[in-house]
């Protein structure tokens, strides 16, 4: 009797999960795996473990989060060693042309690593993707920055004002700023437009510059994640941020800028007047009225092209 029921149950399971052997994990098994405080993501052979209990929300305007001990001391030292003899004066993007120019607003020196340049970098990039829920391919390669005494980066936005810099990957949606060293005094990351700037308790060890906004003191291994776009994909002016002048010691940091689309592949076809769709589903979405319902993605906004300009008939080829 009992075995008959068991058999019937087995058939039922098979009926509900016809190809459980290939893809779908039975739901109860999936839930089992999700329990516990550590989320593991398998990416190309290396596993990226994220511990959500080490993350705190600093602010909602802008959306900013701090992950204590995101990098190990060894990872920090490794990144600094990779950069040490390759640093060059940092540049900024010109507002109109988008070209890299030298500017007194940014006096640090820096260099870009290659994406997944070595195993340590690949592991960190996988961890960033796991934490932010944003795909690794949407990220630029990591930039290492070095600030000596008096060096700073005046408050600025990480989203671009020019169209040229948005052609690959669209706007920068988020930034992960990793602190590779402690700084004795100064060098804080400051958000002058943050909602919480007045209510944040300011301890005496902060520099005067840091008192002008919501500020984060660099601590070796910590990572700061903040978003430059609102949830509706428009630019968030409260994401204005700067690096205060270093007063004592030196500052090392590593930055990962993450775009709304892939930064690896040239997926944007609407380069300079070209009238194309970026997605094969554009004609279908356009017929379904998405050009009107979701104009920022489909058509674009003031400062960036949408992905279905051809199907939405806002350009002519
Ligand atoms: C670039 O444009 C932004 C916003 O329009 C402005 O706040 C900033 O001062 C400009 N920077 C330069 C160097 O012109
Ligand atoms: C987008 O969201 C922001 C923040 O919630 C809001 O201030 C802004 O008006 C919104 N813009 C549009 C076009 O919906």
TrEMBL record:
Domain of life of the source: Eukaryota
Catalytic activity: L-prolyl-[collagen] + 2-oxoglutarate + O2 = trans-4-hydroxy-L-prolyl-[collagen] + succinate + CO2
Localization per Swiss-Prot or TrEMBL: Endoplasmic reticulum membrane
Keywords attached to this entry: Dioxygenase, Endoplasmic reticulum, Glycoprotein, Iron, Membrane, Metal-binding, Oxidoreductase, Signal, Signal-anchor, Transmembrane, Transmembrane helix
Domain Fe2OG dioxygenase: 138-260
Pfam family of the protein (one): 2OG-FeII_Oxy_3
Annotated ranges, domain ShKT: 275-315
Signal peptide span: 1-23
One GO CC annotation: endoplasmic reticulum membrane
GO molecular function: metal ion binding; procollagen-proline 4-dioxygenase activity
Topology in the lipid bilayer: Single-pass type II membrane protein
Cofactor(s), names only, from the UniProt record: L-ascorbate
Main location: endoplasmic reticulum
Enzyme Commission (EC) number: 1.14.11.2
Family per similarity comment: Belongs to the P4HA family.
Protein name listed in UniProt: procollagen-proline 4-dioxygenase
UniProt source species: Eucalyptus globulus (Tasmanian blue gum)
Taxonomic lineage: Eukaryota, Viridiplantae, Streptophyta, Embryophyta, Tracheophyta
